[in-house]
UniProtKB/TrEMBL annotation:
Similarity remark: Belongs to the short-chain dehydrogenases/reductases (SDR) family.
Gene Ontology MF annotations: oxidoreductase activity
Xref: CDD domains: SDR_c (cd05233)
Claim: RNA-binding is one of the keywords in the record: no
UniProtKB keywords: Oxidoreductase
Record bears the keyword Oxidoreductase: yes
InterPro entries: NAD(P)-bd_dom_sf (IPR036291), SDR_DHRS6-like (IPR051122), SDR_fam (IPR002347)
Protein name listed in UniProt: SDR family oxidoreductase
Pfam families: adh_short_C2
Source organism: Rubrobacter tropicus
Length: 251
């Protein structure tokens, strides 16, 4: 399928995991992709695997100057922007009591501030290009209670709320803002989270067991949803939270 032929897109946090899968999927459907990540070398490897035109830019999504430059590069290289995927995020395991203030600040800064800055600088470019799609990355943790994810849940809930508010703010400008709420996705993030437990393998098994369909969600399944939201066929999808969770929220 080439339903994204000619679309100019940015994906943040695209060096691995969900972001990598989204970048490769958008490229496979004809989009030009600007791959943004702090890990420039890993991002370059993704670009080398992408079908079609792919650029790389080292980006700290918490730095306004970096995000402004990222969007500016897409506009200067391609003459505009059609799709912005605010995927970059981090998480920590912990309750409100066990999470440190430093961890709180880190998670909120990357997830919430990063998404805010992505919209702040991308939406004017999308509007100037005649409209486009913003895809933010929320989580089922924004919708149901997940043990040991207090601050992560707060951050993803903020992204959901900001998505809906921004969708109403900008729909009249031809900019659609939506988010995806994945369940537990099998990415390097799982290994980082479980490494903090006494028994990482048990923690991984518990994370997998809470998926009613009996397995982790794959990055490619999230990427398929992102491709749909990027495409013109989702023109009436505005302010939506697209759940891809294997049934977690259906319980």
């Amino acid at each position: 399928m080439q339903r994204l032929e000619g679309k100019r897109s940015i994906v943040t946090g695209a060096a691995n995991g969900i972001g990598r899968a989204i970048a490769l999927r958008l490229a496979s459907e004809g989009a030009r992709v600007l791959i943004a990540d702090l890990d420039e070398d890993a991002a370059g490897k993704v670009a080398a695997q992408a079908r079609g035109e792919a650029l790389v830019q080292k980006t700290d999504v918490t730095a306004a100057s970096d995000v402004e430059a990222l969007v500016g590069r897409a506009v200067s290289e391609w003459g505009g922007l059609d799709v912005m995927v605010n995927n970059a995020g981090v998480g920590v395991a912990g309750t409100a009591l066990t999470t440190t203030e430093e961890e709180y600040g880190f998670v909120m800064d990357v997830c919430v501030r990063g998404t805010f800055l992505g919209m702040k600088y991308a939406i004017p470019a999308l509007r100037d290009s005649g409209g486009g799609s913003v895809i933010n990355m929320s989580s089922v943790a924004a919708l149901v209670g997940i043990p040991d994810r207090a601050v992560y849940s707060a951050a993803k809930g903020a992204i959901l709320a900001m998505t809906r508010a921004s969708a109403i703010d900008h729909v009249g400008e031809g900019v659609r803002v939506n988010c995806i709420a994945p369940g537990t996705v099998d990415t390097p993030w799982v290994a980082r989270i479980t490494s903090g437990y006494d028994d990482p393998e048990e923690a991984r098994a518990n994370m997998q067991a809470r998926q009613p369909h009996g397995r982790f969600v794959t990055p490619e399944e999230i990427a398929a949803m992102a491709a749909y939201l990027a495409a013109d066929e989702s023109a009436s999808v505005v302010g939506a939270c697209m759940i891809v969770d294997g049934g977690v929220t259906a319980r």
